[in-house]
């Protein structure tokens, strides 16, 4: 028995390694492209606005694809979906260097996003089948955080060495290697009872289209800020409301909003994660502009000053994996929210005279809550998700990250200074981030109270039958 257990353990470890290789591709490709935008503009003769769609199309496609892939993974098992996703990502990465315009790159980036979106929900399903090791969940969080941190540095080195096509070529060893391992090591469809009717039907295409249309309209609203486009706002609200109504009534929904709402702890953690990433990415995107506009630094130096945020977040994720063994996730979530508020509040005093000796420690302070909060909320999402919705909820968790990033792009644009004398002014953005961080802290505190009540209710429910049985035995 022990020998069989060791063999299965090694098999799961190798399978998880393949999934981790796929999982890192999403944050890696979303961050590497930042340094390739200017070379793409120069090489293909595109405008900055057109090149920016390489970034936003990836976020939008991944935001929609993550829950779709999660729902498919819940029904089919991880192997076929993950292998298919990695083959799609390989094809998109191989084709991208040969396109001749930005529109072709946007298509390739969108297909790449769909392909790599299979990894995270499949990884969660594998962890669930293996008993739900907190250490394995920690590895997933560390890989995601590390990939996002090294992406700009790796992208810069590859672009200098071989031009912008290199940020696509680098995916191929990872995707093809993951396919070779996953095809033999990943489990297929799990034998067992047939899912209930709300999961066993085909993919709700209309639900997917409503969700995608709502996200696209929301992206358009945010990118247009501070200018408001009433028609686009109405379209975004109408599409998203229509999506919720459709999914609540449809027999086999794309996203089972009824099931999500019935598991009371899921909606709060997903909502908090959106606000959390809105705050973090506002700093991540806004600070480099302030470094260049106010401190007069060049792009390379500005990138180096952002590095402490990313590097510290990796270390905080590693430390958080250990802390979760001895401290509750609710307490660590509150600590990360408090540190996030402290970090963005300090930005209120930043101006052109702020020395770099202050800027770097603040970057470290911002990195700690992101790494810790990302890990803790991933753990909460996993703990609160029912087994049958593991993949779907995992996909929604990643979608929440991308929605936060999309909103951050709009917030940074809306808070950008308008007058020449105000170039590089961070005050408006810092106030906005502080307000959102206060909301995060309040939401985390409220969720902690509700979590304690849910735990107490579950314990009471478990005790009541025992008490009834005891009274019956006594009277008998």
Automatic annotation (TrEMBL):
Pfam families, per the entry: MFS_1 (PF07690)
Keywords per UniProt: Membrane, Transmembrane, Transmembrane helix, Transport
InterPro entries named in the record: MFS (IPR011701), MFS_dom (IPR020846), MFS_trans_sf (IPR036259)
Highest taxon listed in the record's lineage: Bacteria
Major facilitator superfamily (MFS) profile domain: residues covered: 15-454
Membrane-related topology note: Multi-pass membrane protein
Segments traversing the membrane: 46-68, 80-98, 104-127, 139-158, 164-184, 205-222, 228-245, 266-287, 299-320, 332-350, 356-377, 429-450
Location of the protein in the cell: Cell membrane
PANTHER family: MAJOR FACILITATOR SUPERFAMILY MULTIDRUG TRANSPORTER MFSC
Protein name: MFS transporter
